[in-house]
Specification:
By secondary structure, the protein is mainly alpha-helical. It has helices at 6-26, 29-33, 42-60, 64-71, 81-93, 118-137, 142-147, 160-180, and strands at residues 149-152, 156-159. The chain has one domain: dinb family like domain (Four Helix Bundle (Hemerythrin (Met), subunit A)). 62% of the residues lie in helices and 4% in strands. A hairpin with a 3-residue loop joins strand 1 (149-152) and strand 2 (156-159). Helix 1 (6-26) packs parallel to helix 8, helix 3 (42-60) runs antiparallel to helix 8 and helix 5 crosses helix 8. The protein starts with 5 loop residues before the first helix and ends with a helix.
Length: 183
C-alpha cells in the first residue's frame, strides 16, 4: 500500500494540472464548448474542477488549529492511496455524482462580466487555483497531512492527505473526460 509523500503528491498534482492545460490549449473552440444537456463540454469539466479545487485550496490555507475547531481531529488514520482510490471509485459506482452537489456544478460557475476569451480566463483561473493549493500545501508537514481533516461532500470527513489523493484522482478522472472531447 502506497502513502505518497508531499513531494510525490505535488508532482502528481502538477502533472495532472499541466496535462489539463495542454489538452484545453489543444482543443478547437468547437470541441472546447461542445456539450449537451446530457454531456458536459470540456469547458464545463474545467469549470467543475475549478469549483472543486478553489475551496480545497482555501481550506488547506487554514491552520491546523482552525481545522480542529471546525472539524475535530480524524478518528481514523489516513488510508493508503490505493485504499482511498478504491473507496472513491466505489462511491462513483454506487451513484455519487457532482450533480448531487450544486456548488460544484458548471452551471453554478459565474463568469465575470467583460470576459471575452473564456478559454484564457478558465485556464488562468485553473492555474491560479492550483497555485494557491500548492502554496498552501507548502506549509504542511507529513505528519500534519494525517493529523487534520476536512469534509468532502461525497467522501465525508477525510484527512488532508486523503483530500490530496481525492484531488489527484478527481483531476485525473476529469482530465480524461476533457481529453475525450478532443475526438
Amino acid at each position: 500500500m502506497t502513502t505518497y509523500s508531499i513531494p510525490e503528491i505535488e508532482e502528481r498534482l502538477v502533472q495532472v494540472r499541466d496535462n489539463i492545460v495542454r489538452t484545453v490549449d489543444g482543443l478547437s473552440d468547437e470541441r472546447l464548448f461542445a456539450g449537451s444537456d446530457h454531456s458536459w463540454s470540456a469547458a464545463d469539466y474545467l469549470k467543475h474542477l475549478i469549483l472543486a479545487v478553489k475551496p480545497f485550496a482555501k481550506g488547506l490555507a487554514l491552520s491546523g488549529e482552525q481545522l480542529i475547531q471546525m472539524f475535530e481531529r480524524p478518528s481514523a488514520p489516513s488510508r493508503s492511496y490505493e485504499e482511498f482510490s478504491a473507496a472513491y471509485h466505489s462511491l462513483i459506482a454506487a451513484g455519487a455524482r457532482a450533480e448531487l452537489v450544486p456548488t460544484v456544478m458548471p452551471t453554478g460557475y459565474r463568469m465575470p462580466e467583460g470576459v471575452t476569451d473564456v478559454r484564457a480566463y478558465l485556464l488562468e483561473t485553473w492555474l491560479d487555483a492550483n497555485a494557491r493549493m500548492l502554496k498552501a500545501l507548502a506549509g504542511w508537514t507529513e505528519g500534519d497531512l494525517d493529523a487534520y481533516q476536512m469534509p468532502h461532500p461525497a467522501v465525508g470527513m477525510a484527512t488532508i492527505r486523503e483530500m490530496l489523493y481525492f484531488t489527484i484522482l478527481h483531476n485525473t478522472l476529469h482530465g480524461a473526460d476533457i481529453a475525450s472531447k478532443a475526438g
